[in-house]
Amino acid sequence: MKKRVSYVCLAGLLACSMLSVTGCGSKEGGKGSLTVFSYGEYMDPDVLDQFTEETGIEIKYEESLTPEEMYTKYKSGAIKYDLLCSTDYMLQKFIDEGELQKIDRGAMENGGNIGDKYWELAQAFDPKNEYTVPYFWGTLGILYDTTRVSEPVDSWDVLFNGDYAGEVIMQNSMRDTYMAALKYLGYSLNSNNENEIREAQELLLKQKPDVQAYLVDEARDEVVAGNAVMAIVYSGEAYLGHQYNENLAYVIPKEGSNVWLDAWCVTKHCEDLDAAQKFLDFLCREDIAKKNFEYIYYSTPNDAVVESLSEEERADEALVPAEDATDNCEVSLQLEPESNDLMNELWKELKAD
Question: Which of 147, 119, 151 is nearest to 132 (CA)?
């Protein structure tokens, strides 16, 4: 899950999710309602209230921890969600399974705030930009303490060469950890080649004694606190890490990495497509996108917001990567079933004591 961890506002979002767990595009007392499914801590709660104040449409906000959990809850059918916010490879799965409705981009007054680069990025999983609207994006790289490394960090090699044994934190995420190994070996992070996946496994097994821990959100905090020299983290986490410790730096390794994109979509269950598109258009509005950006601090695809950032913010590559920084990066796509099963099996082997 690509989000910051902030427990301060959790109660507010949980309160939103408790409003209702039923209904889709329903009408209550003449006012419409939408059931929205996204990650926790992934939207400023004030934005939901403001949308209701402006439109009279109630938002019932449901939360998920991971794309996989989101998929499972959605497919259970217990709640008929109107809109989802998920990530690249999972959106591809929803599209392939016919779970989404097409969005009328021409009806969106604020859709033009989303930069062309991000619509093109979304084409990796939504080829004609028919089903999704970009929300946040970023990269996966290495957050490291500049005072504790002896050479420039520009390659995944620093994680695997043994020079920082016991000081390395890997992601507790199958796709993210295999991504680092596959890209270091010169392969695609979306490889379906059994030999390449097994070669990545050999590299990770060899590295395992040097790994301090496999973590997710805590990875950044361990480097900030000085308990580790480096960790694989998402770019938004790296930005916040630097705010806490000015000695930290972030790099997208030269071999390439994962460039991810989270986006919104409308499910086939939504009966009020007009209300759903109003919500999507609202999220693209500059002032609203700016609120969400300042709440999350992940890279925004909203060019109007980027142009409003300070010179210092625009210069931070964890927040606004350089134009060529993602040249060797790839969007995560669904693996073939056999490859996914193999990677799951190898991941269990890697994580076993």
Answer: 119
* Closest to 328 measured CA to CA, from 183, 143, 208, 206: 183
- With 0.85 as the threshold, say if the pTM is over it: no
Task: Give the pLDDT of residue 177.
Answer: 96
- Of 286, 271, 268, the closest CA to residue 109 belongs to 286
Alpha carbon 188 to chain centroid, angstroms: 19
DSSP secondary structure of 46-70: HHHHHHHHHH--EEEEEEESSHHHH
- The maximal CA–CA distance of the chain, rounded, in angstroms, is 66
DSSP string for 86-111: EEHHHHHHHHHTT-EE---GGG-TTG
Alpha carbons within 13 angstroms on the beta-carbon side of residue 325 total 20
| Interatomic CA distance for residues 79 and 17, integer angstroms | 12
Instruction: Report how far residue 60's alpha carbon sits from residue 353's, in angstroms, rounded to the nearest whole number.
Output: 42
For residues 138 and 141, what is the distance between their CA atoms, to the nearest angstrom?
Answer: 10
Cα angle for residues 17, 19, 20 (degrees, 5° grid): 90
Residue 295 exposure: Cα atoms within 13 Å on the Cβ side:
20
Tell me the C-alpha distance between 83 and 276, whole Å.
Answer: 7
CA–CA gap between residue 183 and residue 257 (Å, rounded): 7
| pLDDT tens by residue, 240-298 | 899 999 999 999 999 999 999 999 999 999 999 999 999 999 999 999 999 999 998 89
Helix (H, G, I), strand (E, B) or coil at 251: strand
Buried b (16+ CB within 10 A) or exposed e, 176-190: bbbbbbbbbbebebb
Distance between CA atoms of 144 and 130, rounded to whole angstroms?
Answer: 39
Closest CA to 321 of 304, 305, 298: 298
Which residue is listed with tokens 């917001």? 305
